[in-house]
Amino acid sequence: MIFLITGNVGAGKTTYAAALKEKRTGVIFSVDEWNKELFFPDRTEESGLEWFLERIERSEKIILNLITQLEASNCNSILDLGLSKKEHRNKFIQFAKAQGYSYEVHYLDIASEIRKQRMLQRNREKGPTYQFEVTEENFTFMEQWFDPLDDTELQNAIVIKK
Q1: Which of 48, 58, 84, 148 is most buried, by the most CB atoms less than 10 A from its CB?
Q2: For the chain, which domains are there?
Q3: Across residues 16-34, what is the average pLDDT?
């Protein structure tokens, strides 16, 4: 089973992924962890969005290969990859369908005010889900970048509101 976890910044995707792992057992793929370890050390002031997207795309090729191996071992994959754009969610859904893998979309639909407070708290406390500081500028950008699930996507999603 592939679990696709989506929601905007501060929705609690990483916390949710960890809780899901306890219930369903699996391997978590967290984009924030990959970004911090693989990309942040090499970024420069000129490294913009396209720079990150290119590296994430390369990482996802490896992730897809690992999902195939996990499926062959009957092990769940928990994708904490943001999946902010409909196109990005569809990439993984189409992959699952093409391979005949079961999947679920879990959408954390949390109000912006709550998410912003969570983001500020995570920045202050630097607790277990903290990988790097999310600035207010990043938060504002993501508010516009994120594609909320449309009616078709919502029909097949597990929606979590807190």
Answers
A1: 84
A2: 2-160 (3.40.50.300)
A3: 91
